[in-house]
Write a structure and sequence with these properties.
Largest sheet: 7 strands, mixed
CATH topology of the largest domain: Aspartate Aminotransferase, domain 2
CATH class of the largest domain: Alpha Beta
Number of domains: 2
Radius of gyration: 21 Å
CATH superfamily of the largest domain: Type I PLP-dependent aspartate aminotransferase-like (Major domain)
């Protein structure tokens, strides 16, 4: 008999009832150090008092009115995003998947309005993850996500990850847009080099193609800059944002230049819940916190500390780990064993991690994690790894 919750998730045998900063407390009272943060969602930790206060205050005033009316909380958050980014305009969604759908629509609408409605092809990259709607899975194109869901939305072509020669051969005056994650999350914490990101921007400029960046997982201070593309000193035309921007409350957004968004006039897109007062009140508080230069400096300092300790962990367990990759507090441990085995071993040590493709274990802790918690996290990862290989294999450290 099918369970009352559709069984599309392979859930861990854990149930949490409370969260405190970097910690989750299970039903039985056990405390787990959370290095997944809801897959980069709880950027400011669990039950962050500033976010609780913002949500509680707004909940006592107004929850929902729909986008039939002006929403002051939405305007405040949009103004903050425009002030701190490349964007001229913002559309609010509830998730990264919804943001991906609008980004695709916006790029194609741009060309349609210019009289080139047949310019629809969007170039993407192997290993990408842009969400689970039919449009988003067509964009990613991996067999795991698309099998059984055809026919797929046409107009996407996947290129090898980081292959700039393949991109140069594929991009042309017929390309509507290039869509890419500066750092692949689900794909295994695989960063594009700054040089490659600049090359993509230059190729888009040469051909007129729009550049769509998916910063759903790597954005909102996760890499130590407000958005990951800032490290390469480039700007997109359209950007997808979600996860961390709501600090745990469902919120997403599409940011765009005036040029890229020119075709999106009244009636071309909408959302019943997108940009509701509750979500935007929390998002505004998140933005106020993460745009503080001192906060970003702390993310970078803690990222360096965590990476240093992880390099030591890799050296201690060469039979388990191959290396560390990523940027900021979006790090991956490249594994020589199945990452899922490490995730399960972590449960025994009360530490939570997230598996990814390319044999990678994702570490996406709250940006507010403390130095002591970083040390404790690596200690617990070390203990978990030790259960998966003979003690003699560790002696090379």
């Amino acid at each position: 008999m099918i369970p009352s919750i559709l069984p599309t998730y392979n859930r861990a045998p854990l149930s949490f009832v409370r969260g405190e900063g970097s910690w989750l407390i299970a039903e039985g009272g056990g405390r787990y150090l959370d290095l997944g943060a809801g897959i980069a969602v709880n950027a400011l930790g669990h039950a962050n008092p500033d976010l609780v206060a913002a949500l509680t205050e707004q909940a006592g005033k107004l929850w929902h009115v729909s986008n039939l009316y002006q929403i002051p909380e939405q305007q405040r958050l949009a103004d903050l995003l425009v002030t701190h980014t490349f964007a001229d305009t913002v559309f609010f969604t509830n998730s990264g998947t919804e943001a991906a759908e609008l980004a695709i629509k916006m790029a194609r609408k741009y060309w349609s309005e210019k009289g080139a409605g047949d310019r629809i092809e969007i170039l993407t990259f192997e290993g990408a993850f842009h969400g689970r709607s039919t449009g988003a899975i067509a964009a990613a194109g991996s067999e795991k996500m698309v099998k059984g869901y055809g026919p797929l939305m046409p107009g996407f072509r996947q290129l090898p990850w980081g292959d700039m020669a393949a991109l140069k051969a594929a991009i042309s005056d017929a390309t509507a847009a290039v869509m890419v994650e500066p750092i692949q999350g689900e794909g295994g914490i695989r960063p594009l080099s700054d040089e490659d990101l600049r090359t993509i921007r230059a190729l888009c400029d040469e051909t007129g193609a729009l550049l769509i960046l998916d910063e759903v997982q790597c954005g909102v201070a996760r890499t130590g800059r407000l958005f990951a593309h800032e490290w390469a000193d480039v700007t997109p035309d359209i950007m997808m944002v979600a996860k961390g921007i709501g600090g745990g409350f469902p919120l997403g957004a599409v940011l765009a230049t005036e040029m890229a968004a020119a075709g999106m006039v009244a009636g071309t897109h909408g959302s019943t819940y997108g940009g509701n007062p509750l979500a935007c009140a929390v998002g505004t508080k998140v933005m106020e916190i993460v745009t503080d230069p001192a906060f970003l400096a702390e993310v970078n300092r803690k990222a360096s500390l965590l990476r240093q300790k992880l390099e030591g962990l890799v050296a201690t367990h060469p039979g388990i780990f191959e290396g560390v990759r990523g940027q900021g507090l979006m790090l991956g441990l490249k594994c020589r064993i199945a990452p899922a085995d490490l995730v399960r071993a972590g449960y025994g040590e009360h530490v939570l991690t997230v598996p990814a493709a390319d044999d990678t274990l994702r570490l996406l802790p709250p940006l507010t994690i403390t130095d002591d918690e970083i040390a404790e996290a690596v200690r617990r990862l070390d203990a978990a790894a030790a259960t998966l290989q003979p003690a003699t294999a560790d002696s090379t450290a």
